[in-house]
Design goal:
six-stranded mixed beta sheet; 8 helices; 260 residues
Length: 260
């Protein structure tokens, strides 16, 4: 579940229009592993070379796509949202999708409300929900005080996997000790915290495991977090041990980024 977006990328004096968004990168991962998936996104067509691989159009909710202007140079990359398509509601989700083992929610904004997430959990308790928290914080103004950008932790209750980047994690929790207690009390099974190419932490129960990704040659890490979450879910739902699944996911993403 999440966004496809039309990214207008400005690099120096060039302007490139390309498809982006969490679903685009996740679909590439599942395609490489021949995994059967359904896509629920606000776009009427799945673009490019993946179109023929995902012909299940029931998952597409036909509204205007999110459009983002991305400006990048050697020092930084930042985006401006020009058009936002709105939320996906519970009633819009194709019924056959509720046969899935896992729902992965990775959005640019809060496209799936916390109310909808809790409704899915209540009515379909066998579905394990994995949530990338990025959109629920990005919705807030970047220059607003950190305390106003924190999410309501009830959103995380009983989730299988939650993913933050380090900045989001530091805004949400005062320190690691507070985070461990909060995540444990909420019943979050696993929490991933990414810090770019520097490190990835796995919070599980009251334990923390830290991993160092392989050194990569590119500065372009767009979509890395989306690919990591998708690959991690693929491996542990195929019954790999959790720590082994994460190591495989890290290696997979490192290889993909090195080819850019």
């Amino acid at each position: 579940f999440g966004n496809l977006s039309k990214d207008c990328i400005h690099i120096e004096h060039k302007k490139i229009i390309k498809t982006g968004g969490p679903i685009f990168y996740m679909a590439q991962v599942f395609s490489s592993f021949n995994k059967k998936i359904g896509i629920c996104t606000k776009f009427d067509k799945f673009p490019g070379q993946l179109r023929n691989q995902y012909t299940d159009s029931e998952g597409f909710i036909k509204t205007k796509p999110t459009i983002i202007e991305i400006f990048e140079n050697k020092k930084k990359c930042y985006g401006v949202v020009l058009q936002y398509a709105g939320q996906i509601h519970f009633e819009q989700i194709p019924k056959k999708y509720f046969k899935a083992r896992y729902f992965i929610i990775s959005t640019i904004f809060d496209d799936i409300s916390s109310k909808t997430i809790q409704k899915i959990k209540k009515e379909y308790p066998n579905i394990k929900i994995c949530l990338d928290i990025q959109g629920y914080m990005r919705e807030k103004k970047i220059n607003s005080p950190a305390k106003k950008r924190r999410i309501n932790l009830d959103l995380l209750k009983g989730l299988e996997v939650v993913k933050f980047n380090k900045e989001e994690f530091d805004i949400q929790f005062k320190n690691t000790k507070v985070a461990i207690v909060a995540l444990f009390d909420l019943g979050v099974k696993m929490c991933l915290v990414t810090n770019g190419a520097k490190s990835i932490k796995l919070f599980m129960g009251r334990n923390i495991y830290e991993y160092q990704p392989k050194i990569i040659k590119t500065d372009n890490t767009v979509g890395a977090g989306d690919m990591l979450l998708a690959c991690f879910v693929h491996h542990f739902c195929d019954n790999l041990k959790i720590k082994e699944a994460l190591k495989k996911a890290i290696d997979y993403v490192s290889q993909k980024l090195d080819r850019r």
